Amino acid sequence: MSHSDHSPAEKEARRATPGRPWTPKEEPRQDALSRYLGAVAAAASARSTEEPEPAPGTAKSQPPPATSAHEPSAGEPATLHVRDVMQVPAISVPGDMPFLDVAHTLAREKLSAVPVVDAGDHVIGVVSESDLLAKAAVMAEPHRHGPVGRLWQHRLYEKSHGDTAATLMTFPPVTVHPAQRVAEAAWTAAHARLKRLPVTDYRGRLVGVVSRRDLLRALIRDDAEIRGEVESLIRQHLLDPRAAEVTVENGVVTMTGRLDKAVVPELLASVRDINDVVGVVDDIEPV
Per residue in 179-194, pLDDT tens? Predict the structure, then answer.
């Protein structure tokens, strides 16, 4: 993702965060979330210039575009793909698994949702805690009362009478492919409001699963990686890289040292252009 795409989206995401004061422990998490939202927004913006894709929940018949295999040039961060961050093997349940066994699987594996597969390991749907909760509610009170009870989420009410994973699941499933960019998968997860996405091959067979947490960690580099890129820039701009000291905390870069005033503006501008840099504190003493 280029800086020109990332920066405006990130700023918009940061403006959208709550206005209440953040606690010291909460602020780093909010910074990370804002940067994640910025990456997702930039991915959505990029999608608007590409060919329309099927709506979330529909199968994709074609492989991802060739840009997924983009090889980074020297000094450019590598583009991460879903295959780099997905969890394997993926936990799944067969379509004929009884309701109580599905509930036990979610509890045992500490999952909020699980893919439902057929005999060929093709993903046919996803059963979630919400689906099981609806089933439990119908078991507790089988008759709904009032016009809202009769009309609201009729499909959810009807399927909650099922007794197996296949009859309780949400379908069609929203899935991603191993070769998709992480930012694209993050956009899909955000758009569909899902915490976990099954990863399938071109034939729709389950090969892994990726969570929003996996995508978050992949999209936002940690401070050590950012510091490494800043130090690489310093070596390009200064004859003696030891003249500058760098610290990075929650994406904020602080630079100190006695440096030639002729190179300081360009160096600082280059640091600000690094992806995932939230801000730059200039404590440099020009000489």
Answer: 999 888 988 998 888 9
